Amino acid sequence: xSKTRITILGATGYTALELIKILLRHxxxxxxxxxxxxxxxxxxxxxHSLSGLLDLQLSNLSLEEVVLCSDCVFSCLPHTASxxxxxxxxxxxVKVIDLSADYRLDSPDKFQHWYSEPHPDxxxxxxxxxxxxxxxxxxxxxxxxxxxPGCFPTSAILPLVPLVKSNIVESTDIIIDSKSGVSGGGRxxxxxxxxxxxxxxxxxxxxxxxxxxxxxxxxxxxxSGKQTTVIFTPHLTPMDRGILTTTYSIPKTTxxxxxxxxxxxxxxxxxxxxxxxxxxxxxxKDVAGTNYVHITAEVVGNRVITISVIxxxxxxxxxxxxxxxxxxxNYPETTAxxxxx
Length: 341
Prior knowledge:
The protein is α/β, with parallel strands linked by helices. The chain contains eleven helices and 14 strands. The strands form two sheets. A seven-stranded parallel sheet has the order 3-2-1-4-5-7-6, with helices on both faces.
């Protein structure tokens, strides 16, 4: 079988590094180009762990050059930058997996409200497949453009959709509390990510106004058929990677117990290779460096509580992107992703 030629746009960040590491062990993937608008070093000089494994030079390729050398583009560009290049790539027959938020929301007005910029490709919004295979596998197989999910949304959507879709919890009164490692903020110098600021410290941020809120509400509503509203509060924790998300929802019956919920989860995700329903309380180290999601639940008083853990850089970004890549190119879905924590 011939390999799929891959270009990674914006290859200097943490997400791109994890993507490269996965693709290097993928038997059907061939990384042919890595780009940066400013950095012209070898990729192995930016990410030293790649020394001797991938020594491509970073370059600022033109769209024409990308089209000529690529079958698939993974875009790790900043918000709005992906949507400026994706239309031409798609028009020229190149498949695109976008790891930014450019195509996740379903309307230009919603995008401008949450991202404070007009959308560069507004007519496409609402028609792009959301790249969460556990919910949209059939659509992913048949598309040329994927909106790769956000990390926080992945950790919240997966435990909540079965509850809301089964109509056993109220869909308009859900609280989501998430803790994330510092790598979720990207590989740039920001004051609150400096060691002396984040070490031995935990802090909430963007309370009531985090950009992942509309994404969570939109996908749960779409997947369940029930209008959903959430209160989402993210927290920065002093660890490199990982997300632990706790959700609180109101059950519609007083007879619901933990076993009922776990049974529901196991039926709902019975054939999903990367979702593990567990009886214990999971931690982020259980899934570190993997594409797995561990989910459990409890019933406490008049609340259904779910707890889920993911690696924000893998299932929350690059692992999901490769899972989508496998589906789009008809490779076994788990290829290159069955790693241990």
